[in-house]
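Dear support,

Our group has been running a series of protein-ligand predictions, and this particular one with ISE is the one our PI (initials K.S.) wants archived with full inputs and outputs. We had some confusion internally about which version of the output was final, so please treat the block below as the authoritative record. The input we submitted was:
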Amino acid sequence: MTVRVGIIGVGVMGSDHARTLVANVPGAELRALCDADLASARAMADETGAKTAGSDPLAIINDPAIDAVLIASPDNTHRDLTLACLAVQKPVLCEKPLAPTAQECLDIVAAETRAGRRIVQIGYMRRFDPAYVEVKEALRSGQLGRALMLHCFHRNVSAPPWFDAGMAITNSAVHEFDIARWILESEFTSVRVFRPGASASGGAGSPVFLVLETSSGQLVNVETFNNAAYGYDVRGELVCEKGTVSLRSPVNSETSHKLIQSLPYPSDWRARFATAYRVQMQAWIKSVLTGSPAGASAWDGYASAAVAEAGLASLAEGRSIAIVLNRRPALYG
Ligand code: ISE
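Confirmed final output from the archive:
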């Protein structure tokens, strides 16, 4: 069987997903694209061979000729579009974050729980990145002992024009919340967010520094800097009782010139996480075919959004904020 896919939103990520789907995923067909900007949808359909291009997301979701939907429209549209997919029980891969607020995510969790089966996957692609997978495997092997601390750095070249001050947490640091929960297999219990006083603007794109505690007594620190200028740079080191394990970014070449040896940085996440996006897409299509869920769930989307919400409160109030999650429905294990 071929999975006929419709993609909602052809901005940076929607276009990247469309290209990944047509180039790397046997068993799937890119059938339809839509975007608020119809011309962009048409241009992407010309490039990828998608049969239809439109501007109405509900036309894709309700089309019986579409088997599965990928949502890559702006964050504040995710809740309603995911609920529309759930209403017709159509498998959906929703870009992260599942929604900007915890309550919106809970609406999705409630609808999926009523449906009684896992239909929603969240695009937390780092779970498919070989470097993060190896960090998790190293911890699971037991040879490093128990995990004590996880250091995370997340730097972008420049924040997009639509970024607001809170998005360093709700749009960027959510990746770290998700991957830390996945590696440590623990929930966060508190967060304190700092901003360096020396930072000129304090507005969108300026750095935030978070210190989080987990229910297993680990400390996680996250630096997010969306205007770091020099390159896209994601680093991480897991510190355990008997050793540490760090991420290595994929690099294909090294330049030697005028007595200096140098390595390139990617300009954004698409190159750094290209393998992760490809493997995530393949895993999603396989899960649609087999009915066996893959990747981050709606519950995971909720958990990260709840941490982000507490982070925003900490930033506003200048103190540590406790994180208390709802009771996890049996559907999510
Ligand atoms: C962006 O939306 C992403 O998801 C990228 O992976 C992340 O690095 C960036 O900070 C976000 O704004």
